[in-house]
Amino acid sequence: MTPETPHVHQANAASLVFLELGGMNDEQENQDKSSRDHKKLTRREWETVVDQQIREAMERGDFENLRGRGKPLDLSVDPNVPEDWQLAFKVLKDAGYAPDWVEQDKDLRAALENLFKPLRRYLERGANFRGDRAPYEDRLIAEFRKAAAELNRTIDVYNLKAPSPRVHRPRIRIEEEVEKFRRRCAEIK
Prior knowledge:
Distance between the termini: 57 Å
Largest sheet: none
Radius of gyration: 26 Å
Shape: elongated
Oligomer: single chain
Order of helices and strands: HHHHHHH
Structural class: mainly alpha
Helix content: 55-70%
Number of helices: 7
């Protein structure tokens, strides 16, 4: 644990308590609504606004008498795991295993890499290809479409298991990838 860690935990706790305390007072909320009407905030600007509100709350002393102040947060319990599964996940974690969705993500990354290997290999060696390329390219595309469709089904299942949209995997845009491959093939002819 680094020396900065307690401060990070305090900031996280401050964020949680700030939200529990109701966030902004009426005047701040009205100012916020009027500024929203004029301009939609970007993610970075939104984070800056939140940081500013937390800083102001800290200056007012809103976080002075909080339970557990100055102590690191207990992050041993994952809020995304149902209570009846927490013991099972703890046993798996202690044995060196990750939740199923984490393991599946590792498999997905490897499968995505393998999916594009034949297309990349062909493009790298395409100038040296002898004979009619069209049937070979058509076969590669057919195999790619089939494998990509199967991988998209796996991605859909993974996205259902993953606890947050931030860790979701995008589906493969099969036809876009096929068109990209065809354009690159035309360049090497």
